[in-house]
Amino acid sequence: MPELLRDSTIFDDLDKQIVHGLVVDARIPFAKLGAILGVSEQTVARRYRSMRERGIIHVSGQVNVVPLGHARWILRIRSTPSGALRLGEALARQPELSWVSLLSTGSEVMCVSRARTAQRRDALLLQLIPRAPQVTELIAHEVMHAFPQDEEWPRYSCLFTAEQLSELGSRRPIQDAAVGEVPVALTPEDEAMLAILARDGRAPYAQLAAATGWSAPRVARRMVELVESDVLYFDLDFALERMGYAVRAAIWLRVRPADLAATGAAIAMFPEVTYVAATTGPTTLTAALVCRDTPHLYRFVTERLGGLPGIVDMEVTPALRTFKQAQALMDTDRISLLR
Question: Suppose 333 and one of 78, 127, 241, 254 were both cysteines; which one would form an S-S bond, judging by CB atoms 3.0 to 4.6 Å apart?
């Protein structure tokens, strides 16, 4: 059995199958998922509610800012040691920032900025963060290219038969907008819908219709349009420690330019990796990964990364604490949903 599938007893195989179904299609009807898995709709709904109420998973709708004409940034913010914890907590409350973590240095916070206007980007990168009294240095890496993965973490597809996987379908990959493409424009109604989906990616169409003033069928059509234009995608946050994963880390790589594409594509296939991107800045490739423990992290570095010829330098920074994932705030080892 693959190392990452040796989960704690918090999930049984049916839970894992439900999770995989949500990873593929976050809004899949529970009746359809139950039929694929050979259980009732009520069983799927009950299992999902239990995982959500226990703070183990959270489904959210996220905005991809690239089709809107803006860049994603990975920020490394160095702080005074005494102020790092307070800085991380404050940054987690900023709606444009996600994946906010205190790194193992104890005086550095990492986060991802997805500001949706140039004005808000400049406010964050040039004013709000640099002027915070704890901040001593800010390094901003612009994401040039995010490498697609063959399967989203936690990679539970092996628990399905080929027929079940065919019925379930595949997750639509998130694509960056083509250069020169006209940015997508969002309406006030879109914004109202997106605000609700950020809190609950499975919000009923009736709730979205009430917030937008549209009919439920119109909401459904517009959601499909936003997904197909790559503006809207759905993400799952997990309480990793409760699932048996003690180490969450970022790796910062310097890769020879000629090997950058091949190295990024290879890293994206490793089961421990949740995200990998080519970036600007002092390092050229950044990846996020999840491991069982420190020995597992060591094996990943020596056996998986060690076999790639294009890497010339590497830094590994485990997270001491995660304040916020894609959308969900973390309360020690459980998800505390944003209100």
Answer: 241
